[in-house]
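sorry for the late reply, my laptop died twice this morning and i had to redo everyting from scratch. anyway the thing you sent over, i finally got around to it. pasting the sequence first so we're on the same page, its 248 residues, then the predicted structure underneath. double check i copied it right bc i was rushing
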Amino acid sequence: MSRSVLWTYAFVDRPLPLFGRAGDFWTAVTETGRSELRGARHEFVTLLAVGADACVKVQGVMDGEGDAHLDFAVADVPEFVASAHRLGARTVADHGTLVVLRSPAGQLFCAVPWQGESVRPPVVRGSRLDQVCLDVAPSSYDAEVAFWSGLLADWESLPGALPEFHVIKPGPGLPVRILLQRLGTERPASAHLDLACADIEATRAAHERLGATAVSRGRHWTVMRDPAGGTYCLTGRDPETGGLPGRA
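ok and here's the structure:
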């Protein structure tokens, strides 16, 4: 596939009753403003960066506790959808200019028309929201890696620093990359947001002042819970390149 993905959006999906709380937190974390509310229930908002194009949106969802998903802004939505179908995805909802799909493992994502976005938001106080991590059951992991590597064939697909991770990295300028994580147990697919942090502890403290709480710590990351109850990770990666120290 040629470079059909021209921009990427990370969606913060949180329960609709907590939508306002989620918007307040993620607006502060990313140092952005907010668009007007959209949707029949006023359940969508775009986080607006000064001097750059938006790449993060918040959505209030009616079912579940909420997690995250990706929107791919493409030059040709039907062509992108057809490519996804050939690789095993299925359409959940077709709204014409917006198509909701589900990957073979069950992860939701959307195809939307490119609106000319090209300027990536800057690093904010040593951190950047730059990654959506897809949490995949062991039985589906290899097929899911193959799906995303095939759909995004012009992105770089490479093993992560640990055997349970795989990175799908876009070319220069695109703001959001994908990390696939093989879970230790079988459960439905889900996703969470990752921030690249120059200093995890400093970012953790700043987020706690905004109402988040630390959940656990791993080798290169700290799991956090935002004020709307959603989990996300602070990762020890370079906020400019997205890579771990010593890796691109």
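Residues 23 and 183 are 29 Å apart (CA to CA).
thats about all i looked at so far, will dig more tmrw
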